[in-house]
Each structure stands twice: as C-alpha cells, then as structure tokens.
Amino acid sequence: MDQVRSLPLEYRADITFYAATRVNDLDARTLHEWFDPIFNTAGTATRAYPVIDAVPASDSLSAAQAQASSLGLSSLDIKTRIARIFIAKDYPHALRLAEEIRVEPKESRCTDFVIETANPYFDLLGALSDPPTRRDSRNRLRSLQVNAVRNLHNASEIEAAGRMILSLPISEPVLLELLAAYSQGISTIRSGDREIGGLDAAGQLTKVVAAVAKRAEEAGTSPLPLVNAFRSFLLASLSNSRCRFAPTDRRQEASAFNGAFRHYLSPPLSILSENDLIGRTGPSGGEEGDLPYYQQFRQPFHVLFIAHDAEMGRRSDASASRFTVGIEDVDEYIHLLDALETRGDPCKECLFISMGQLYHILLDTIPTYINPTSAIDSYVSWFDQSSMQKDDPEQWLYRFKGFLNLNRNMNQPDVDRVMKLTSQGKSLVALPHPGYSEIITASVRSQSAIVRTYGRAELLFRPTYDIKH
Predict the structure, then answer these.
(1) Per-residue DSSP letters for 11-78?
(2) CA angle 132, 136, 139 (to 5 degrees)
(3) What superkingdom heads the lineage (predicted)?
(4) Which stretch of DSSP H or E encloses residue 53?
(5) Per-residue pLDDT tens digits for 29-61
(6) Can you list the positions of beta strands (E) in 135-285?
(7) Which contacts (CB < 8 Å, 24+ apart) does range 447-451 have?
(8) Helices in 219-262 by DSSP H: which ranges?
C-alpha cells in the first residue's frame, strides 16, 4: 500500500479496491486511511462518469471505450464504490459521502458514440436503504433519494432511478414520495436522439418505467402521472431532431411504449404512433469509424492462427503442416508493430487499441515450442512507454489487465465452463498460457512504477483468471 499511494488516481484506486477484497476483516480505521484520500481526489479522474456504447459495433472506438469503462474507474464510479464499502463498517460516513456526490451527466449529441450514465449513484442510494436504523439517518437518506429522483438530468437517470425505486420494498415509507418525484423528474428532462437510441435499443428504458408504473399500482397510487410524463418525454425528445447516422428507431419506440402501457392508454392518454416521433433531421453527425485495420498483418495472422490451431489439435489437414512459425516470424511481427508506432495514426487512442489487440493476438497464438520472452518483453516495453498510461488510464489499464490475465490460473468453475463450451464446439481465445511467468518477471523489472506495482500485486494476491477478459 505504501507503493500504491504514489500512483496516479485511477491505478491507486483500482489496486486499493482489489486489496480491500483480499484482506479479511479490515477495520473502519484502516478503510478510512486507505479510501478517504482517494475519495477526496476522485474528481481528478480522467472520466467523470461511466459510459456505455450508444451505437454498438464490433471493432469500434466506442465499443473499446465502453469496455474500458467497465473497470469502474470514473470519478463517479470511484466515489460510489468507496461509499458502498463504508455501508457495513461506518454507515454514517457512507451517508455523508453520498451527500457529497453531485451528479449531472451531460446529454449526448449525434456526434457522440458513448453515453455518460449515472447508474452507480442511484445504485448507491438503493444500497444505503439497508439498514439506516437511526431516525436522522432515515430522514437524510429519504431527502437524498427524493431530491435525486426529482432532479433528473438525462435519459440515463430514468432507468437508474427507476431501478432504485424498484429495489425498495413496497412497505418502504418513502416509496409514494419517490413515485411522485419520479413522475416530476421525467416531466422536466429532454434527451437527444443518440441518447434514447443507445439507452433504449432493447426497450430497457421503457421496461423499467413500466415496472415502476406497476409498482405504483401495487402501492395504491395512480400510475397515470408517470405514464403521461414518460409519453411527454418521448414526444418532446424524439419529435425535435433525429441523427443522420444511426437514429433512434421510432417505430420500435412507439411499439414498445404502446405494448408496455396498453392498460393505461385510454383518454386522456392516447397511444403513440411512429409519426408522432418522426422529428426533423438534425445537423450532420459524423459516422463512427472502425478501428484501423493494417493489411500488413494479414499474412502473419493467417500463419499464426493455423499453426496455433494445428498445435491445439483443432486442425488436422495436411495443409496445416505448411504453416510453421519460427522465432524469426515473431521478430518480424514485432518489427511490424514497431513500424506502426513510428508511423503514428491521427487517432492516438485508435492506434493504441489496435496495437494492443495485435500484441495480444501474437501472445495468444504463439506456438508453445517458441520461447515467448522477446514477445512479452516487447509488449511490456510498449505498455511502459505508451502515453495512454497518462492520457486515458482506463483504456491503458483494460489492455494491461488483459495481458496479465494470460498468466493467471483458472478456478474450477471457470475450467468447467470452458470445458462445457469446448464440448459445444466453441473455441475460446485468450485463455491462460502455461510458461508465461515471464509476464510477471518483465512487469516487476519495468521502468514504469505503475507496471511494476501491478506486477508485484499479481505476485502478492495471485488473482485467478478473469474470464470476462
């Protein structure tokens, strides 16, 4: 922990969160020592809020940004995670921290391809409901919940606030007040086309509001104000303007609304039609580009994958024997990577992500009869020197954790899961590699304090394989 304290915020928070899960029976005093300074500086995180991909597409920058955001290292993520840690150990402090958090995610525009969300904040407010025993704590939490729901800022909060309300028991005294505040909050916000399309692509937004309407009925109050508020929100938001690229599916939105609220749609509330939501076409928003594809890697890819499949027993045809890989092929692959970085790319983040993928392919497919040391050392050196370590810690760390993951051991449930998928004919990639201890050796002797500290944390905590990577 002494080493961790000198790291930039996101890395310090990440390792401290992990350490707190691995050390049994941490007392409140130690938790304060570890986490209070992190909470106080969380506002300096590179990202203010977690993001989701608004226009899902494989190999896109927005998909990579959403993946990296899943690490939970935005300013809001860090603050809410710390507050939740204190709920069991020091509830008054957890509530004080929640009261200090301010939430106002920005509205996404057609030129944006990720959406800021406030989900962790409302998840925290729900978690704080169990168990505020003192009357003053109950009143403060009630005020916090009601104000948060009444003062919504964008569409992402509609779902998050709705889920918080649904997490409360029907007997919760504040429920009726929250239901009234929810209708009021929805009636006051407007969102852009990109936002609603990204959040409600699977009808999730509508499903949550419909579930809250049902909860209102169960609580003995009319759901009509909420249904009307949500209808007005859709009308005002979607009839305004629409994105030129990947606009919200108006027919789907109207159909989802009418299906979810059919029991309430009689005068004065009427059904929605697609034409109600058409909206004028707004200013041009550039189409999201794919991550760059580098043609010079096509043949090395082909040779590596076939040689790897043949070694794993997945390919037995005679042609596979023609595709052998030697250390000179690995060296040439690394040379191509070095040339990419020298040449640069207008999108620095795109280049970083693509190069990380290319390095990962090399390590994941290199045959076991080839010493992987040069490839691993080159990969660590690339992480050492990348400016993304400072410019976008989430993106850098997401790639680096995937690299560390190749050296971890699998627990039995994951082994069973992999065996089951294999028996179904599904082939998984990026599984742990025997003999890849050089990953930790190279990390510990790195020139980067961040890389060194993560290497030492791997040695100390011995985390198991993360199948999500």
Answers:
(1) HHHHHHHHHHHHSTT--HHHHHHHHHHHHHHGGGSS-SS-EEESS--TTBHHHHHHHHHTT--SHHHH
(2) 80
(3) Bacteria
(4) strand 51-53
(5) 999 999 999 999 999 999 999 999 988 887 889
(6) 241-242, 280-281
(7) 447/384, 448/383, 448/384, 448/389, 449/3, 449/6, 449/7, 450/7, 450/8, 450/11, 450/389, 451/380, 451/383, 451/384, 451/400
(8) 224-238, 250-260
Beta-ladder partners of 393: none
Strand blocks (E) in 260-380: 280-281
Supply the pTM of this predicted model.
Answer: 0.92
The rounded radius of gyration (Å) of the Cα atoms in the chain is 25
How far is it between the farthest Cα atoms of the chain? 77
Give the length of the chain.
469
Tally of CB atoms within 10 A around 317: 8
Note the Cα 4 to chain centre separation in Å: 23
| Number of Cβ within a 10 Å radius of residue 432 | 14
Tell me how far apart the alpha carbons of residues 23 and 26 are, in angstroms, rounded to a whole number. 7
Angle between helices 327-343 and 348-365 (to 10 degrees): 180
Structure token pair of residue 163 = 């889920």
